[in-house]
Amino acid sequence: MGEPETSSVDPATPFVLPKGGLAPGNRGATPPFGSVRGSDRGLDGLRPAGIVFDCDGLLMDTEPCWTVAETAVFAARGLPYGPDEKARFIGKSVPATVALMAAIFGEAGNEDAIEVEVLSTIEDVISREAQPMPGALDLVAALQGRLPIAVASNSPRAVLDAALARADLAGAFGAVIAADEVVVPKPGPDLYLTACARLGVSAPESLAFEDTTTGVAAARAAGMAVVGVPSLDPSGFPADIVLASLADPAVLAWARSL
Hints:
The longest helix is centred in the middle third of the chain and has 19 residues, at about 110-130. The chain has nine helices and eight strands.
C-alpha cells in the first residue's frame, strides 16, 4: 500500500455541484446532482447512476476491533495501550500504523513482520466481533437490484473481506475494491474511479457514502457527490449532504424510491 502517491487530481479541490438536481427517472443524466448540502430536500430528487460505499465506520463498526487488535500487539511486548496511544493511531492507514508501531517498539527494520502480526490479529478480531453500523444492512438490501452498488475501502483486501463476511455482505455488491488493489488509495481518487469503472457507471454521475474527511476528499477527487455520515465530530464535515446515521428513516425511504 505505502503512502499515497501524487495524483493528477487534487483531492483537496472541492467538487462544485450545479443547482437544480435531477428529476426522477433521469438517473445518470449530466450534470449529476443538485447543490443539496443544507437543503431541506436532502436526498430527495437524487438519482445517481451508481452508489459506492466506504466500509470501515460507514457500513461496519470496525474501530473497536482495531483497538482490541492494537492492544494485543502492544501487550505482546509488555506495553500498555490506552487512550493516549489510541489517539496516535486512529484514522491511520495500515502502513502508517505499522511504521508508528515500529518506532514505538524500537523495531526499525521489522515493519514487514509487524504488518503480518497486525493484519493477522485484526482479521481475527473483525471476524469474531465486528458489527454493522446502524441502518447499513437495511440500506444495502433496499438498494440491491435498484442500481449498481459497490464498496471502496482503504483497508487491505483480507481485512475488507473479513468485515463484509462478518455481516454476510460479501455477495451484496457489484464491485468491492480494496486499498492494496490500486496505485493511490484514499485520499486519491483511484478506489472510487475503479469501483465506478467496475460497475460500468460514470463517477461524476454517481454518489459516494463516507464517514471521514479523507474519504470525502477521495470521492471528490473522483468527481463524485458525497453523502457524509461522520464517525467523529460532524461540525463542518465537508460532504454535500450530512446525515447523523444510515438508520435515518428518510435514507431508507429514498433508497426504496430509486
